[in-house]
Amino acid sequence: MLHLANRELRLDLLDPSDPADIAHQGSRYCWGGYIWQVHDTKFGPLVSGPEFPKPDPTAFNGQGLPESFRHRTREGKPLTWQGREGIALGAGMLVADEKNNVALTAPCAWTVTPFADHLIFQTRQAAAGFSYELTRKIELRDRTVTSYTQLTNVGETPLALEWFPHPFWALTGSRARVALPAGTAVPENPGFAIAPDGALTFKRPFVTKDDSQFALLTLPRGRELSLSVDHPRLARVTFATSFVPDECPVWANAHTVSVEPYLTLRLAPGATRHWHVMHGFYSV
């Protein structure tokens, strides 16, 4: 594990070169800058996961504050693929069999540079006709964790893909309350509702890791996302994006809840895109 720490918080990050940490990785989440856990010096671990507190969750589920470059849409449409060869940005080269089962065949190599209050992760890879450079910066300042991403298309083929953060927040008494921007709506579904005060709530507690709910939020147009989440041991947890989400799922099971703002990326050869997300963990 890699670590960032100050007097109040400690971040555990997966080391993309450590075999023990690689066992937690896969083709879904970006390897560099993967925050596995956030610890409070007084209150212990602060974030969860679909199988939490299991110490060895599946790589697909993971835990903590992972981020993902989608190589296919949720509906299965290929994004960074040519035939049966593909690339998962930040993870590595992919191969699909005749049943469309995907295997990670060559993980990308990361360079990690440590500083007092941040870590820099850098990689460059080419596969399936695509080539990119990716820099991730994870910064810890007081009780705020900021995740910065810079992506450059260094190939001759346009890059068209989707990216999203998948923060796994802890539940409070088997339920969640997420204060969303005014005017947010959610379609009728068995798991979530918008309360009279505008917060997203559970209609019922979920029972197991496989008992879950997915829904697409309708956010106010043209605005960056900012929200807060009730926490079982802290006063509140906050989350904010530097970009206007193109769409925004919410998902939960018996162990966690997650709001996942999507960013649609279209990078011409030579183009670069920057963005970041901020997580706040406040005890008062």
What's the helical proportion of residues? under 10%
Total of domains:
2
Query: Describe the biggest sheet?
Result: 10 strands, antiparallel
- Which regions have little confidence, pLDDT < 50, spanning 5+ residues? none
Q: Structural class from helices and strands?
A: mainly beta
Number of beta strands: 24
List SSEs in N-to-C order: EEHEEEEEEEEEEEEEEEEEEEEEE
Strand content: over 45%
The gyration radius over C-alpha positions equals: 18 Å
Mean pLDDT: 96
Structural overview:
The structure is a single chain. The protein has one helix spanning 19-22; strands spanning 2-5, 9-13, 35-40, 44-45, 67-70, 81-82, 85-88, 92-96, 102-107, 111-114, 118-127, 130-141, 144-153, 159-165, 177-179, 192-194, 199-202, 213-217, 226-229, 236-241, 248-252, 257-259, 263-267, 272-282. By secondary structure, the protein is mainly β. The two termini are 29 Å apart. The protein has 2 domains: 2-167 and 265-282, no CATH class; 177-263, no CATH class. The mean pLDDT is 96. Helices cover 1% and strands 46% of the residues. Strands 10-11-12-13-24-20-19-15-17-16 form a 10-stranded antiparallel beta sheet, with no helix packed on it. Strands 1-2-3-4 form a 4-stranded antiparallel beta sheet, with no helix packed on it. The chain is built from 1 helix and 24 strands.
